[in-house]
């Protein structure tokens, strides 16, 4: 049996960390940790969005929201400033958590630096891999979270957020939205946002 590669070990450790999410969701009748499911779904989109993705991009896709539950949104004010403070705190936290895991797994410093860059969006929007990560994240958001946000925000706010989300995506990423199999209500909101 071949020795496990640093990449494979990193994936195991990232999944283990996200698997500790105390929040869960139902997937095909089974209860699964929310962050683990989200990260795995984002990673599954990457090969569809970019040819020959790097190991760094695949690792960033799995870890860019690692242990997100540890910094809840309600620790910050409910305004635009609070939202951006929360997002900045998350990016720094995700990069630090991922770095520790990648070092433990034995990844080289060049790969670790690249993963950090993708997680913190250092070269977005000029970097094609950063765009692929953004597209994958947005697609999984639409696929798995839009319905809940629609319940919380109402239609007008959701449409405004959807327009901002779709604007960040590449044409290729947007082309996959129609294939998501959204329920009727979510599909109607997306259609209104794109009109």
Write the layout of secondary structure elements.
Elements (H helix, E strand, L loop, with lengths): L5 H13 L5 E4 L2 E4 H16 L5 H9 L16 H26 L3 H11 L8 H17 L1 H8 L1 H14 L2 H5 L8 H11 L1
Antiparallel strand pairs: 1-2
Helix pairs in contact: 1-2, 1-3, 1-4, 2-3, 2-6, 3-5, 4-5, 7-8, 8-10
Structure, described:
With 195 residues, this protein is mainly α. The protein has 2 domains: 6-127, no CATH class; 145-195, no CATH class. It has helices at residues 6-18, 34-49, 55-63, 80-105, 109-119, 128-144, 146-153, 155-168, 171-175, 184-194, and strands spanning 24-27, 30-33. Strands 1-2 form a two-stranded antiparallel ribbon. Helix 1 (6-18) packs parallel to helix 3 (55-63) and helix 7 packs across helix 8. The longest helix has 26 residues, at 80-105. The relative contact order is 0.12.
Straight-line N-to-C gap: 54 Å
Strand content: under 5%
Helix content: 55-70%
Oligomer: single chain
Overall 3D shape: globular
When the domains are counted, the total is 2
Order of secondary-structure elements: HEEHHHHHHHHH
Structural class: mainly alpha
Kindly state the number of beta strands: 2
Count of DSSP-assigned helices: 10
> How is the main sheet built?
2 strands, antiparallel
Radius of gyration: 17 Å
The average pLDDT value, as a whole number, equals: 93
Which strand order spans the largest sheet, edge to edge or round the barrel?
1-2
Question: Low-confidence parts lasting 5 or more residues at pLDDT below 50?
Answer: none
């Amino acid at each position: 049996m071949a020795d496990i590669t640093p990449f494979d070990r990193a994936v195991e450790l990232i999944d283990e960390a996200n698997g500790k999410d105390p929040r869960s969701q139902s997937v095909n009748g089974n209860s699964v940790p929310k962050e683990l499911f989200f990260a795995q779904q984002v990673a599954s989109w990457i090969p569809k969005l970019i040819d020959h993705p790097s190991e760094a991009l695949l690792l960033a896709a799995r870890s860019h929201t690692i242990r997100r539950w540890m910094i809840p949104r309600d620790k910050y004010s409910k305004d635009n400033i609070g939202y951006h403070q929360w997002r900045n705190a998350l990016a720094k936290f995700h990069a630090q958590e991922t770095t520790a895991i990648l070092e433990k797994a034995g990844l080289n410093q060049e790969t670790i630096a690249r993963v950090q860059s993708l997680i913190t969006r250092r070269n977005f929007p000029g970097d094609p891999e950063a765009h692929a990560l953004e597209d994958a994240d947005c697609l999984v958001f639409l696929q798995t979270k839009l319905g809940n946000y629609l319940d919380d925000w109402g239609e007008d706010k959701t449409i405004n957020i959807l327009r901002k989300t779709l604007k960040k995506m590449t044409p290729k990423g947007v082309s996959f939205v129609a294939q998501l199999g959204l329920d009727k209500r979510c599909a109607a909101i997306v259609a209104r946002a794109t009109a």
